[in-house]
Amino acid sequence: MPPFNIITEMPYVLSLDEGTTSARAALYNQRGERIGMHSVPFECLYPHPGWVEQDATAIWRAQMDAASAVLLQAKIGAADIAACGITNQRETTVVWDRRTGQPIAPAIVWQCRRTADFCAELARSANSELIQNKTGLVIDAYFSGSKIRWILQNVPDACAKARDGEILFGNIDTWLIWKLTNGAAHVTDYTNASRTMLMDLATGEWDGDLLNVLDVPRAMLPEIRPSSGRVGMIHADLLGAEIPLSGIAGDQQAALAGQACFRPGLSKNTYGTGCFALTHAGSRQPRSVNRLLGTRAASLDATPQFAVEGSVFIAGAVIQWLRDSLGLISTAAESEAIAAAIPDTGGVHIVPAFVGLGAPHWDSSARGLICGLTRSSGKAEIVRAALESIAFQSRELIDAMEADSGETIRELRVDGGAAVNNFLMQFQADILGKPVVRPADVETTALGAAYLAGIAEKIWSGAEEVESFWRVERRFEPQMSETERASRMDAWNTAVRRTK
Ligand code: ADP
């Protein structure tokens, strides 16, 4: 008997997409088409200014509810699923008791700033260069290492238990896999591990020097595995039958895979609250001189794959600000028609440095501004300038990536909530001088995790086959002249200088 029914669409691939505000589950058929998706939200807690926490057990429950619901909705049984992939909010830190399976503290979310002072001290210390060279990261509270340290130092007896391996660390991927396998697998993948500030980016191993600097015992850390490959089985009691767990990647790296960017030079930009741009760097470790992050890209085998990453802190959030704080618009979608109705902003610029500036500036003391106002500036000019600011900031990331790699990025693949805005995408193409390409399936994160799992279980033969699934929905060609582009960038750079 074949393991699956070849007359129908079986086998299916399940993707568990655990984000910052909701846990989602998506199902794909053999042609890589999404046939179902279900999302279950969970709470975020803000116990002190700058602190962000979540309940890891609530995340686990939300993820299981989403998985059960999508199976029910699509009328598909677990036995028909040949592979499951997991993608997750990165850096968020869970520490739990190996015996009871109970977290010993709330999960510390990636956005949490509680270890910012410690990290600032670390950045000034003699270890600063060692950390940045080994990890490819800029020292920051964002990454998991200082979050683990905080839990060990603030929960009674945690240090000793961690040394004895009685408590375990995981990012959300590791935590979910441990729960899904009933504690049989304590693993992560290279993409997630590269965001902990504990892994040597080149070797892909936990690094003794980094563990010492951050006081993290090796006994509590998961095994690091390639992003595509079986790591265990989902226990039959959970969804009704065993399912191979065969793909893992952090959300941004999963999106890179979901955009079929498996080769050097291919880039994607995700337009959400912030922007996350990643360019695949192949098997050569990137060394950024433009203050971007070096990170692991999802690997299909044991050969390391790298990416360069840059992020903009405030992107879609500037549109939320127009809506919620200024009341200039009532929905984010409205911004498109308002901006498109005028030919330009009449010299108005908004630099939304609300929380400082990210890559390539890394200036946490910069603050936002609106400049170039005249008596004829009105709502439309401001709305348009806000949308343009998203594109200008993204152009800065892409410029830095090209300068780092010495290679030209030919086109930019886009996704995320604000990528539906056609005005923004056209302006992005204009200001980049490169085509911007929006795929038919913009749920690239879930799709990427499905690809990684499906390739591992031989549902798909490899990168080439899943690349053939990728479909363009719309391609935006640059229409702005070189001269105009240069003068627009000059004006933007002047505005940015004023925020510092
Ligand atoms: P996240 O995953 O960060 O929560 P999403 O990918 O869901 O974000 O995108 C939501 C963001 O996109 C919000 O900041 C919102 O203001 C912005 N956004 C949504 N729709 C549009 C639109 N049509 N035009 C511009 N921005 C939009």
Q: What layout of secondary structure does this protein have?
A:
Blueprint lengths: L11 E7 L3 E7 L5 E8 L11 E2 L1 H19 L6 E8 L5 E4 L9 E2 L7 H9 L3 H8 L8 H11 L3 H6 L3 E4 L1 H9 L6 E3 H4 L5 E2 L4 E2 L1 H7 L8 E3 L2 E7 L1 H4 L3 E8 H8 L8 E5 L3 E8 L10 E4 L9 E7 L3 H9 L9 H7 L8 E3 L17 E3 L7 H27 L6 E4 L6 H11 L3 E4 L4 H13 L6 H7 L2 E5 L5 H18 L1
Parallel strand pairs: 1-5, 5-14, 9-12, 15-21, 21-22
Antiparallel strand pairs: 1-2, 2-3, 4-7, 6-8, 10-11, 13-14, 15-16, 16-18, 17-18, 19-20, 22-23
Bound molecules: adenosine-5'-diphosphate (ADP).
Describe the structure.
By secondary structure, the chain is an alpha+beta fold. It has a domain at 6-250: Nucleotidyltransferase, domain 5. It has 17 helices and 23 strands. A hairpin with a 5-residue loop joins strand 2 and strand 3 (34-41). Helix 10 (251-258) crosses helix 15 and helix 11 (316-324) runs antiparallel to helix 13 (379-405). It is globular and about 70 Å long. The structure holds adenosine-5'-diphosphate (ADP). Residues 272-273, 316-317, 319-320, 332-333, 335-336, 416-418, 420-421 line the site of adenosine-5'-diphosphate.
